[in-house]
Design goal:
The complex is a heterodimer of chains A (352) and B (340).
Chain A (H helix, E strand, L loop, with lengths): L14 E11 L11 E12 L4 E5 L6 H8 L7 E6 L2 E2 L5 H9 L1 E4 L13 H11 L7 H11 L16 H13 L5 E5 L7 H18 L2 E6 L2 H7 L2 E6 L2 E7 H6 L4 H9 L5 H6 L31 H4 L5 E2 L5 E2 L26
Chain B lengths: L6 E12 L2 E13 L4 E5 L6 H8 L7 E10 L2 E2 L5 H7 L4 E4 L3 H4 L6 H12 L4 H14 L5 H4 L9 H13 L5 E5 L7 H18 L2 E6 L2 H7 L2 E6 L2 E7 H6 L4 H8 L57 E2 L5 E2 L4 H11 L1
Parallel strand pairs in B: 3-8, 3-9, 6-7, 7-8
Antiparallel strand pairs in B: 1-2, 1-4, 4-5, 9-10, 10-12, 11-12
Helix pairs in contact in B: 4-5, 4-7, 7-8
Classes of the chains: A alpha/beta (352), B alpha/beta (340).
């Protein structure tokens, strides 16, 4: 049960993504003109309800940021469907896209690069209102409110981004995203540039804003701990595909895909006694090129469970008796997740 | 404590003269590393951890300079040593790994040549012998098909493999100390796990000491025997890894651990950030640099008036050598244990 069909017991999705595909042509280099493409996203499906957070997690190059851009129609999908509140975005006209953009917003990773250094904070936060022609009507007060809400002093609104710390700058980016009262906010690595002591405050702020305004978050990050902390549901991506998805605990406590298991296992635990005594799964090899992805299961070149079927048949993302959808022919619980409630209860299959 | 330390840093002070003023990047740091030991210096951006590492090997970038202190390498002070003397130590007795292998490697030479070169600088021998040794080192740290890969250029390597090449260069001359500055920060977590496991194998095999510089508390827990925590250019806490993680005694360390989302707990608790932001290193707060953000601070006396020492008679230390530069370290330790 994933993707297109709304899950029973959950309200109709605000965002419904089905079989999303994005290919980028490769220009230049040795293979110029031979028509190579980067298979950035290959058939991703997921949905997001109002007020909910879906964490999209994966390593660099897995396609998670491309998904973010496709969802907001910042780039055009090669195939597949993105429905926002029932309206198809992928082939929408300009007017519909503008309407959708009023109800969505994006927060970027780099608060240095995403804020125009020549603009004051007031100008930055009010820009969406000006574009929509709504600044004259109480815009100034709205900016003050927003700045207070993200715990910045409105008296500093005449300052420029470089006068603020990294954490404060990310708060400016968040205030700007909230200016038009969005329903969906896409956050692409929103806290990964911040030190942990500062990151914690921004994560808390995002949680508060969500419950206050009923925001839906598509939260994209590579940090598994942050994603676990903030997400209701999680989708794990590998080389352009979602390999496992489910509730937060489905993925973090009952991971059934060998990649998810290895990924969770690879995160060192900040406790020397546990960290140095737990058994580790160290994956061999590296992520293959998305220009020429492996046949069958894309993870098979690094998978400890690989069999001959893995190169022949693409494992569909579906329920395989593990309680949530997994794209693996040999999906099973059994490797210890880090956050497993009873450490030691599950024997490690791949000791170092 | 009979064995003399391999490296002994004493009251190191490194500053940067900028237009805005003098940046106190490292403000009086002291520590030892013994043979075979892994010391992690952990801290956030601007804490002075990387500048400490650069100061040790004489690679402080302009306009930085070492104001005071000693860097005793096997008893000999490297500060004030000539460039020639420094180069003889660096790359041979001390290997260095930086965060970004792409900018540390020369793009126009093969990696084999770059490793071999670092061997030839420090040892007699022919080019061919050096290349054989380079291939040997590459194999030993898990670069597959090392003989063929030695003829490749850095751009032909992935991030993880490039970092292995850096490690190979650092290890080529069998150093006694490996300085690793954020060695896995640029890498994905599954690749980080590979590199960490490589570093652990190396350590077990060669017995080299490691100075690990990182902001990643998980990495510290995975690798370190001893931990030193830095804040605003000062070392605020030091002790065995187990002690520092399980019984932190400095409010900053407590705050750092509490602010971390982690995979080994229930995960529903609200994160606890450290309030405020780190101070400007040009204009540090009086007394303890952490006091404006500290929940334990009593001001003005003693926290805003007196800098709590980590070293010396006034330092608070237990039998195991666990120290914290805090006027209220015992209270902090008691509260942290109760809180956990």
């Amino acid at each position: 049960m994933t993707g297109a069909q709304p899950m029973s017991g959950r309200p109709a999705a605000l965002l419904e993504v089905t079989d999303l595909v994005k290919h980028f042509p490769v220009r230049g280099g040795l293979w110029r003109g031979r028509g190579n493409v980067v298979h950035a996203v290959c058939g991703a499906s997921f949905s997001l309800a109002r007020g909910e957070t879906l964490g999209l997690v994966g390593e660099s190059g897995c396609g998670k940021s491309t998904v973010a851009r496709l969802v907001l129609h910042l780039i055009k999908a090669t195939a597949g469907s993105v429905r926002f509140d029932g309206t198809e975005v992928a082939n929408a006209g300009r007017g519909e896209i503008r309407a959708m953009r009023r109800r969505t917003a994006m927060v970027f990773q780099d608060p240095y690069g995403s804020l125009d250094p020549r603009m004051t904070v007031r100008r930055l936060v009010s820009e969406p209102l000006r574009i929509q022609g709504r600044y004259r009507d109480g815009g100034r007060r709205r900016v003050d409110e927003l700045l207070e809400r993200v715990q910045l002093d409105p008296d500093d609104a005449w300052r420029h981004p470089h006068e603020f710390s990294g954490g404060q700058r990310q708060r400016i980016g968040i205030a700007r995203a909230l200016t038009l009262d969005p329903e969906l906010v896409v956050l692409d690595e929103p806290v990964s540039a911040l030190d942990v002591s500062i990151q914690a405050g921004v994560v808390n702020l995002l949680e508060d804003l969500q419950s206050e305004f009923g925001l839906a978050y598509l939260f994209i990050a590579h940090d598994l701990s942050v994603v676990r902390h903030i997400s209701d549901r999680v989708a794990v991506m590998y080389l352009g595909q979602i390999v496992e998805t489910g509730s937060r605990d489905d993925v973090y406590r009952r991971a059934a895909h060998p990649y998810t298991q290895a990924l969770l296992n690879a995160v060192p635990v900040p406790d020397p006694v546990r960290e140095q005594s737990r058994s580790k799964i160290v994956l061999v090899g590296e992520v293959p090129s998305p220009i020429d992805p492996p046949t069958g299961c894309r993870f098979r070149t690094r998978c400890p469970k690989v069999q001959s079927i893995c190169s022949e048949e693409v494992p569909a993302l579906r329920e395989r008796g593990q309680g949530h959808p997994v794209a693996c022919h040999f999906a099973e619980l059994g490797l210890p997740g880090i956050g497993a409630p009873s450490p030691g209860a599950i024997p490690a299959v791949v000791p170092r | 404590m009979t064995e003399s330390p391999l490296l002994s840093v004493r009251d190191l002070r490194t500053t940067f003269d900028t237009e805005a003023g003098v940046v106190q990047a490292v403000g009086g740091v002291s520590f030892d590393i013994r043979r075979g030991e892994v010391l992690a210096i952990v801290g956030e951006s601007g804490s002075g951890k990387s500048v400490t590492a650069m100061s040790i090997v004489g690679l402080v970038p302009d306009p930085g300079r070492i104001e005071a202190g000693q860097v005793l390498w096997k008893g000999r002070d490297l500060i004030g040593a000539s460039g020639r003397q420094l180069r003889a130590v660096r790359g041979s007795e001390i290997g260095v790994i930086f965060q970004d292998p792409m900018s540390a490697l020369n793009p126009v030479h093969t990696v084999g040549r770059q490793i071999a070169e670092s061997i030839l600088i420090h040892r007699r021998g022919t080019r061919r012998q050096a290349m054989e040794r380079a291939i040997e080192v590459m194999t030993s740290i898990g670069i597959p098909q090392a003989r063929r890969r030695a003829r490749s250029y850095p751009f032909e390597f992935s991030g993880g493999m490039r970092q292995r090449v850096m490690i190979a260069i650092a290890l080529a001359n069998e150093p006694d100390l490996l300085i690793a500055d954020e060695p896995t920060t640029a890498l994905d977590v599954t690749i980080q796990a590979q590199v960490v496991s490589t570093l652990q194998e190396i350590r077990a095999r060669t017995g080299a000491a490691v100075l690990l510089i990182t902001h990643d508390l998980g990495l510290v827990a995975a690798m370190a025997d001893q931990v030193a925590v830095m804040y605003a250019g000062r070392m605020v806490e030091r002790g065995s890894a187990e002690e520092v993680f399980q019984r932190p005694r400095h409010p900053y360390t407590v705050g750092l651990l509490a602010s971390l989302p982690r995979l080994d707990t229930a995960g529903n608790d609200r994160l606890r950030p450290i309030l405020g932001s780190p101070p400007s290193l040009i204009d540090l707060p009086s007394g303890c640099a952490f006091h404006p953000r500290c929940p334990y601070a009593r001001t003005p006396v003693p926290c805003a008036s007196e800098e709590p020492p980590l070293e010396g008679a006034a330092a608070i230390q237990d039998d195991a050598g666990h120290r914290a530069a805090c006027h209220f370290a015992p209270e902090v330790a008691a509260a942290a244990v109760v809180g956990s």
